[in-house]
Amino acid sequence: xxxxxxxxxxxxxxxxxxxxxxxxxxxxxxxxxxxxxxxxxxxxxxxxxxxxxxxxxxxxxxxxxxxxxxxxxxxxxxxxxxxxxxxxxxxxxxxxxxxxxxxxxxxxxxxxxxxxxxxxxxxxxxxxxxxxxxxxxxxxxxxxxxxxxxxxxxxxxxxxxxxxxxxxxxxxxxxxxxxxxxxxxxxxxxxxxxxxxxxxxxxxxxxxxxxxxxxxxxxxxxxxxxxxxxxxxxxxxxxxxxxxxxxxxxxxxxxxxxxxxxxxxxxxxxxxxxxxxxxxxxxxxxxxxxxxxxxxxxxxxxxxxxxxxxxxxxxxxxxxxxxxxxxxxxxxxxxxxxxxxxxxxxxxxxxxxxxxxxxxxxxxxxxxxxxxxxxxxxxxxxxxxxxxxxxxxxxxxxxxxxxxxxxxxxxxxxxxxxxxxxxxxxxxxxxxxxxxxxxxxxxxxxxxxxxxxxxxxxxxxxxxxxxxxxxx
Length: 472
Known about the structure:
Blueprint: E1 4-8, H1 12-23, E2 28-32, H2 35-44, E3 49-53, H3 61-71, E4 76-81, H4 86-94, E5 99-102, H5 107-136, H6 148-165, E6 175-178, H7 185-194, E7 203-207, H8 213-221, H9 238-241, E8 246-250, H10 257-269, E9 271-272, E10 281-282, E11 286-291, H11 295-300, H12 306-312, E12 315-318, H13 328-344, E13 350-351, H14 353-361, H15 367-381, E14 386-387, H16 389-392, H17 397-401, E15 418-419, E16 422-423, H18 429-443, H19 448-455, H20 459-469
Helix pairs in contact: 6-7, 10-12, 13-15, 18-19, 19-20
């Protein structure tokens, strides 16, 4: 079945020609000679587009347009006007018409306009669907957890969002979300956006560590044609794309000084200048940034601008690691098991008591992300309706860091009494940290990236600590 077109035209010959031409090209056209008949057919049929003559015998076309837009603001309306009625067509465009054609109508040109209008209608429909789907998978309900630590996080987000709804003038405060890798910083950022008054506007996210500095600057601020070697076309940056909505900058601690300076100017002036451009553009953007690095230490080390840091942290949210969320590991494991069981058609699978005990005892250095991946792996490795401890494939924390004590209890981190002969009870924290870093580097054969993964910290944080301790 083709897409439905309602043609409201009082000239019978013209209406017949348009109907036959479009019917032969796959559309389903119904015709009406008056506004009243057009309203009746509009209510009865599945109409995707209206071709509207602005000079009808019973009601002015602009009134018909207004009524159609009132009944369904999403339907596209193309107006047909006679010679000398250009001003009426302009008024129709102001009233919400998609476009207009003048008589005598060239059928091939009309068909091109119909194709374009219906193509945009499909695009807008798809965009609306994906926006709605994205919004339904975001918000406070996605921040799962019954622990008091997560309840406090949700309440803090709720309080900030409520305050934002009452904002009379100016932009909402910048938010800095801090937490270890895998704690759900992106989910928290989405909750701020989709629970707030900007939920229908764009939510644009960028991982600052995923791009080299020259590409990062271009992605954020856009560029003019010829700004650099490969800039063959003008490009709008993500800051401009987020106008009216939220810009989420993940891994903000990985930005270079030049980008930090531009971000500072953006936060202060609320203007953006494209790379190679000469004009500042005003933007209305809500800023949310996230990091798993100790920005305070980076500021002291001169690697992160202090003025930008204080601009970014008007509101701070600290996401607790999973080991500090008493009882949440088991609850989240059950949630992920149900989720993956539906995906793989394995309903009815459950954890054994041994597996649940292991989940409760593990410190989860990779936090919720690690837990989710472990549960999916366990489901794939099991064959029956029970997931045993062996299916989890969890490496004990003592094997990773060389600890000799028992596995950590829920919500706690058990610390070994010594590392490589260094007495932790003596309070020699720097010595212990140096010893742990040395052990991780030895285990990874000097690979800093792998050593950072072993320690559960970012590569930049490890590099900073290597420099701090003078480790060769």
